[in-house]
From TrEMBL:
Keyword annotations: Nucleotide-binding
Pfam (any one): Ras
Keyword Acyltransferase: no
Protein name: Ras-related protein Rab-34
Gene3D superfamilies assigned: P-loop containing nucleotide triphosphate hydrolases (3.40.50.300)
Residue ranges of coiled coil: none
GO molecular function, one term: GTPase activity
Keyword Transferase applies: no
Superkingdom classification of source: Eukaryota
InterPro entries from the UniProt entry: P-loop_NTPase (IPR027417), Small_GTPase (IPR001806)
Organism, scientific name: Champsocephalus gunnari
Region called Disordered, residue ranges: 83-118
Length: 118
Protein backbone atom coordinates (compact mmCIF):
# COMPACT_ATOMS: atom_id res chain seq x y z
CA UNK A 1 0.00 0.00 0.00
CA UNK A 2 2.77 2.45 0.87
CA UNK A 3 5.08 1.39 -1.99
CA UNK A 4 4.05 3.97 -4.60
CA UNK A 5 3.75 7.16 -2.58
CA UNK A 6 4.06 6.63 1.16
CA UNK A 7 3.40 10.29 1.95
CA UNK A 8 -0.09 10.16 0.44
CA UNK A 9 -1.36 7.26 2.56
CA UNK A 10 -3.22 7.80 5.80
CA UNK A 11 -3.11 4.60 7.82
CA UNK A 12 -5.37 3.90 10.80
CA UNK A 13 -5.80 0.89 13.05
CA UNK A 14 -9.37 0.97 14.34
CA UNK A 15 -10.43 -1.22 17.23
CA UNK A 16 -14.19 -1.72 17.18
CA UNK A 17 -16.69 -3.08 19.70
CA UNK A 18 -14.86 -1.47 22.60
CA UNK A 19 -18.13 -1.58 24.55
CA UNK A 20 -17.95 -5.40 24.71
CA UNK A 21 -14.68 -5.51 26.67
CA UNK A 22 -14.16 -5.12 30.39
CA UNK A 23 -11.89 -2.25 31.42
CA UNK A 24 -9.06 -4.72 32.15
CA UNK A 25 -9.44 -6.43 28.76
CA UNK A 26 -9.68 -3.10 26.99
CA UNK A 27 -6.49 -1.87 28.65
CA UNK A 28 -4.56 -4.96 27.55
CA UNK A 29 -5.98 -4.87 24.01
CA UNK A 30 -5.20 -1.17 23.66
CA UNK A 31 -1.59 -1.66 24.81
CA UNK A 32 -1.10 -4.31 22.11
CA UNK A 33 -2.93 -2.22 19.51
CA UNK A 34 -0.86 0.88 20.26
CA UNK A 35 2.37 -1.13 20.00
CA UNK A 36 1.27 -2.62 16.67
CA UNK A 37 0.06 0.73 15.31
CA UNK A 38 3.47 2.25 16.10
CA UNK A 39 5.16 -0.63 14.22
CA UNK A 40 3.08 -0.01 11.10
CA UNK A 41 3.15 3.79 11.55
CA UNK A 42 -0.61 4.08 11.91
CA UNK A 43 -2.90 5.98 14.27
CA UNK A 44 -4.82 3.78 16.69
CA UNK A 45 -8.48 4.54 17.41
CA UNK A 46 -10.76 2.55 19.72
CA UNK A 47 -14.42 3.03 18.84
CA UNK A 48 -17.84 1.61 19.59
CA UNK A 49 -20.53 1.78 16.94
CA UNK A 50 -23.10 0.68 19.52
CA UNK A 51 -22.48 3.54 21.96
CA UNK A 52 -20.99 5.90 19.39
CA UNK A 53 -17.92 6.40 21.57
CA UNK A 54 -15.02 7.70 19.48
CA UNK A 55 -16.77 7.34 16.11
CA UNK A 56 -17.35 11.03 15.36
CA UNK A 57 -13.88 12.01 16.57
CA UNK A 58 -12.33 9.34 14.35
CA UNK A 59 -14.20 10.55 11.25
CA UNK A 60 -13.37 14.18 12.06
CA UNK A 61 -9.69 13.18 12.29
CA UNK A 62 -9.77 11.40 8.93
CA UNK A 63 -11.57 14.34 7.31
CA UNK A 64 -9.20 16.95 8.73
CA UNK A 65 -6.05 15.05 7.74
CA UNK A 66 -7.43 14.46 4.24
CA UNK A 67 -8.39 18.12 3.84
CA UNK A 68 -4.99 19.28 5.07
CA UNK A 69 -3.17 16.92 2.70
CA UNK A 70 -5.26 18.12 -0.26
CA UNK A 71 -4.69 21.80 0.55
CA UNK A 72 -0.94 21.29 0.89
CA UNK A 73 -0.87 19.30 -2.34
CA UNK A 74 -2.67 22.07 -4.22
CA UNK A 75 -0.35 24.70 -2.76
CA UNK A 76 2.68 22.71 -3.89
CA UNK A 77 1.23 22.29 -7.38
CA UNK A 78 0.54 25.99 -7.73
CA UNK A 79 3.94 26.96 -6.37
CA UNK A 80 2.33 29.11 -3.69
CA UNK A 81 4.16 27.53 -0.80
CA UNK A 82 6.21 30.62 0.07
CA UNK A 83 5.99 32.09 3.57
CA UNK A 84 4.37 35.23 2.18
CA UNK A 85 1.57 33.22 0.60
CA UNK A 86 0.40 31.40 3.72
CA UNK A 87 -1.93 32.98 6.24
CA UNK A 88 -1.22 31.95 9.80
CA UNK A 89 -4.07 31.93 12.30
CA UNK A 90 -3.21 32.47 15.95
CA UNK A 91 -5.17 32.80 19.15
CA UNK A 92 -5.64 36.29 20.46
CA UNK A 93 -7.31 37.89 23.43
CA UNK A 94 -9.40 41.02 23.72
CA UNK A 95 -6.35 42.83 25.17
CA UNK A 96 -4.42 42.16 21.95
CA UNK A 97 -7.00 43.87 19.79
CA UNK A 98 -7.00 47.59 19.13
CA UNK A 99 -10.28 49.24 18.26
CA UNK A 100 -10.65 50.33 14.66
CA UNK A 101 -11.96 53.76 13.77
CA UNK A 102 -15.15 53.89 11.79
CA UNK A 103 -16.91 56.68 10.01
CA UNK A 104 -19.13 58.39 12.57
CA UNK A 105 -22.28 58.11 10.48
CA UNK A 106 -21.69 54.51 9.49
CA UNK A 107 -25.31 53.53 9.69
CA UNK A 108 -27.14 56.75 8.96
CA UNK A 109 -29.92 56.72 6.47
CA UNK A 110 -29.65 60.27 5.17
CA UNK A 111 -31.06 60.74 1.69
CA UNK A 112 -32.69 57.31 1.87
CA UNK A 113 -29.41 55.35 1.70
CA UNK A 114 -27.26 53.51 4.19
CA UNK A 115 -23.58 54.42 4.40
CA UNK A 116 -21.13 51.54 4.52
CA UNK A 117 -18.45 50.81 7.11
CA UNK A 118 -14.93 52.02 6.39
Amino acid sequence: MKENDPSSVLLFLVGTKKDLSSPEQLSQIEQEAIRFSEEIKAEYWAVSAKSGDGVMNFFFRVASLTFEANVLSELEKSGARNDGDIIRLTDSTEADRTPTKRKSNCCSSENGRLDTLY
